[in-house]
From TrEMBL:
SUPFAM superfamilies: (Trans)glycosidases. GO terms for biological process: oligosaccharide catabolic process. It holds the Pfam family Alpha-amylase. This is DUF3459 domain-containing protein. Residues 21-317 form the Glycosyl hydrolase family 13 catalytic domain. It comes from Allosaccharopolyspora coralli. GO terms for molecular function: alpha-amylase activity. InterPro entries: GH, GH13_cat_dom.
Length: 409
């Protein structure tokens, strides 16, 4: 995390920080009831630290939406209690990680009349050792922000300003270019990278739009390619080996961009979407596979039929991938380590585009900084100059295969 830019000013902690979204009920079950919980996350902090995560973003913590009349200030008892949340915050901080949560507000209550009650809820949660809050409205917590959410952020901004170094964030789409106000949100979770095709020209256009909007708002973008409302990258890019190769290539693109890489739990394992017979059109989120050869792969000790997870998922477990050098988990670990170690990734917000063959894109992070090149075409192309730092697929020559990204310096 870079808190000291070249101009000598001190950046807030969230700049360039690696965020990891935890789908709380599907991450780790500590008490055998079949539902992930706060203590389950606490027991897995060692894994998250090893991965290179610097901040956790938890969804599903709060039992009900904030209504300005006393609701929305309780941990959902299914996942724990306030004491377990505070213990998680303490141990996360000891491990060098920040802790943030989703906080939903009742959409039809947003307005000046509810400001005092909303402020009470924010004071309650930030006073519970949290480092930030992503705000949204119910219904539609996972949807891109709109004018109502902007009004909500404006109402809450004075409250956040009383807590030094605490962040307020929103989920955005093309919305914020038209409705956003510079500086109202500290960070914005941008969904556009998770909705673009694996095609070089479209990727570049999307990246350029996000960077321009982020600069206009004065808020760093959180780049996400997976999430509650998004199909997992492996599935979206074609499934099987093709989808995995493209998802790995996009991982290097995302981690090379200025701003904040946002990982969705299980993305680092190249998980596909789960499948339930009869629900083929529905995005199914499966529990995090940790170890073993049978579902639910260490997620829970609860008996039952885990229908969205099959025995074939044994190849995706953390246990299987941790010691495999060419696994997707190993790719993410190496990428995040290099991102911390190489100054060009975090000491500037510049992206200089290179000329590239048809179907390819290449950009450099500042003058003399690392280069990311991606081949979305069907033919092999020459590598750009430089020493190879990392590639999403094995390289056997100075050529870049299809569906592959590479970092060079």
């Amino acid at each position: 995390m870079n808190e000291h830019p070249p101009d000598g000013t001190r950046r807030a902690w969230w700049h360039d920080t690696v965020f990891y979204r935890v789908d709380l009920r599907l991450f780790a079950d500590s008490d055998g009831d079949g539902v992930g919980d706060l203590n389950g996350i606490r027991h897995r902090l060692g894994y998250l630290e090893l991965l290179g995560v610097e901040a956790l973003w938890l969804t599903g913590v709060v039992s009900e939406a904030v209504d300005g009349r006393g609701r929305g200030m309780r941990v959902d008892p299914v996942v724990g209690d306030l004491a377990s949340l505070q213990l998680l915050a303490t141990e996360a901080h000891e491990s060098g990680m920040r802790l943030t949560i989703d906080l939903p507000f009742e959409r039809d209550r947003v307005g000046p009349d509810a400001a005092a009650g909303f402020a009470d809820a924010v004071h309650f949660w930030l006073g519970s050792d949290l480092d930030g809050i992503r705000v949204g409205t119910q219904p539609g917590m996972g949807a891109p922000a709109d004018a109502v959410v902007q009004e909500l952020v404006d109402l809450l901004r004075p409250v956040f300003d009383t807590y030094p170094n605490r962040g307020v964030g929103v989920v955005i789409d093309d919305w914020f270019a038209n409705h956003g106000r510079s500086g109202s949100s500290n960070l914005v979770t941008d969904l556009r990278l998770g909705d673009v095709s694996f095609e070089a020209d479209e990727l570049r256009k999307t990246i350029e739009r996000v960077l321009a909007d982020s600069h206009a708002l004065g808020s760093p973008a959180v780049w996400v390619s997976a999430g509650q409302a998004l199909t997992r990258p492996v599935t979206r890019y074609g499934g099987g080996d093709l989808g995995r190769d493209r998802a790995r290539a996009m991982a290097l693109v995302k981690c090379a961009l200025p701003g904040i890489p946002g990982l969705d739990n299980g993305e680092e394992l190249a998980l596909p979407d789960g499948v339930i017979p009869g629900l083929s059109e529905t995005i199914v989120r499966s529990p995090m596979p940790w170890e073993g050869t049978e579902p639910p792969f260490g997620f829970s000790s609860a008996p039952g039929h885990w229908e969205a997870t099959t025995r074939e998922w044994a190849e995706f477990t953390v246990e299987t991938q941790m010691e495999t050098p060419d696994s997707t988990l190993s790719l993410y670990r190496t990428a995040l380590q290099l991102r911390r170690e190489i100054p060009g990734f975090t000491d500037n917000d510049d992206v200089d585009w290179y000329g590239a063959p048809s179907g390819c894109l290449a950009f450099q992070r500042g003058r003399g900084g690392p280069v990311c090149a991606t081949n979305t075409s069907t033919t092999t192309v020459p590598l750009p100059p430089g020493e190879v730092l990392l590639s999403s697929r094995p390289l056997t020559s100075r050529e870049l295969p299809p569906d592959t990204s590479v970092w060079l310096l």
